[in-house]
Amino acid sequence: MKYMMFVCTDTEPDTDKAAEPDIEVWVSENDARGRRLEGSALAPTSAATTVRVRDGRLMVSDGPFTETKEVIVGYDVLECADLDEAIEVARAHPMARAGRLELRPLVELND
């Protein structure tokens, strides 16, 4: 099953003083096991463009319209046997301690 893992900041990171996992090790290990299909960091929210259509009119504006301090800073597409495996993969990601990770199953659309 494929999962989208949103990598997000968090206003309440873990306070554990133990060393955080190395992101390069996490990426290499999960790429080698075929569990990470792709992933990338995102440009800062200041580089975002918001697109909406209202009453048939295109509205384009700079930046996101969010009042939250938590933002999506990256993503990974995972291929895991089930949600339990996806949780274990996410658990080892450095942002599980510094931020938060949101897992969502990808829906296969039939043509």
Automatic annotation (TrEMBL):
Pfam families: YCII. SUPFAM superfamilies: Dimeric alpha+beta barrel. Residues 8-109 form the YCII-related domain. Belongs to the YciI family. This is YciI family protein. It comes from Nonomuraea roseola.
